[in-house]
Design a protein that fits this description.
Elements lengths: L9 H14 L4 E2 L7 E2 L10 E3 L4 E2 L6 H15 L3 E2 L7 E17 L6 E16 L5 E14 L9 H23 L1
Parallel strand pairs: 3-5, 3-6, 4-6
Antiparallel strand pairs: 1-2, 6-7, 7-8
Length: 181
Amino acid sequence: MTTPRHARRPWLLALAAAAAGLALPPGGCATDPRDGYAFSSAVPRDATTIQVPMFVNATPEPGQEVLLTEAIIKEAQRRGWRVVQSPTAQTTLTGTLRGAELRRLSVDPTTGYVQEMGMVIAVDFDWSDNRTGKTLVSRRGFAASDTFAPQARASESIDQARLGAYGRLARDLINELHERW
């Protein structure tokens, strides 16, 4: 039995695949998650800068607006926007932290201690186009959550849960902006 000619030279097939990959333009995730991979930027071409002033904190816990705003800025930068803190930005994202609520998710049946809890963060936000004055996206009660285990063995702190929930909210919020553009 003879081996097919292309099977005797696997390096040739690998070289051809690499050359084909180099010929394609750089790609990334599409703006719409249902579209999967795309060969264009996920950020709208005509809106490359965003201003994110400090969110207003309407909760009784001071300082939480700083953590939330920082998470949103980092996510916007990760997704390709240039965050600037000046009115020359093409768009502005403003918002209010409305609530941070703990929810009991599971209880140990033998001890009655909480095994897992959820931290739910809710915000109101508006995304405006500074060039036209038009509100692009406006949401009330936009929420995200993260879970944590406060029990002694896992000993995850409420601060870890809060940071996780802020990160999830930032990802979901920036995804909403991309989806609505």
